[in-house]
Amino acid sequence: MKFECSAVTWAGNGFTGFRNQMQRLGCIGEALLEGDSLQSPSVQGVISQDDDGRPVVRILSTHEQVLNGQTYYGCIFPARSGYRKKLIEYGLRVGAELAKNGGEGYFSVDFIARKLHCKAWDLKAVEINLRKGGTTHPYVLLELLCKGKTDEEGVFHSENGEPKYYVATDGCLIPALQKVRKDALLHALLSGKHALAEEIKWNMEKKKGAVFHLFRFVDLKNMVGFTCIGSTREEAEEINRKTIHFLTALGEQCADTP
């Protein structure tokens, strides 16, 4: 074992003795998980209280997390059907333990999902977050716009019973946005004069389209956040593709404008 701190050795006394410190303080071990089709799903819940002050755990959503290396980029709702119910089950169990220890509010659990020898999915929990996170605001947005709830299978249904899916990102980096200011983006979205924007903008009647946020990053980092909602996973992914195409075209158009 190679120690990063030159003052620390395996044996020795006090601070210099890693073995002694491990026996006194305990340690956390990490395992390298290998398998086919590695995925990074998560489950999100909230702990509240009923009228009698007893804790209530409710699962809000499951997601496929989209990562850029180890950095969170966005998410797809809901998680795959192959392990979605297991995520909900584990989320309820974690929430119950948190509630026993006084936990309140939002929480989420990150997992590694892998297929072993091309058979059933194997789930391993890797982290608990006692806070709102990157998957919170897309789901809250879905609830506000579509006025529905998630069923026991983990699928969201709007107020008219139609299932809803989304693809969301907090940091869509598009180099072509370098010449675009946020006021130009807003104008393209709201003016009704940009054909691509008309294809993707939010339709309140049909309850589908792209909803933008994090506009301030357009000016700072050529980045923007948005959530693309559709009635099928494929429709949400198509709206996401069209949104990226719209942003790229707008950037190229602004670059050609003196």
Describe the fold and architecture.
This protein has 258 residues and is of the alpha+beta class. Helix content is 31%, strand content 32%. It is built from seven helices and eleven strands. Strands 1, 2, 3, 4, 5, 6, 7, 8, 9, 10 and 11 form an eleven-stranded antiparallel beta sheet that branches. Strand 5 and strand 6 form a beta hairpin. The model has no long low-confidence stretch (mean pLDDT 89).
Outline: globular
Give the helix level as a range of percent.
25-40%
Instruction: Briefly note the structural class of the backbone.
Output: alpha+beta
Cα distance, first to last residue? Answer: 60 Å
- Cα-atom radius of gyration: 22 Å
Number of strands: 11
* Sheet having the most strands: 11 strands, antiparallel
Q: What is the number of helices?
A: 7
The average pLDDT score comes to: 89
Low-confidence stretches: none
Beta strand %: 25-35%
Secondary-structure element string: HEEEEHEEHEEEHHEHEH
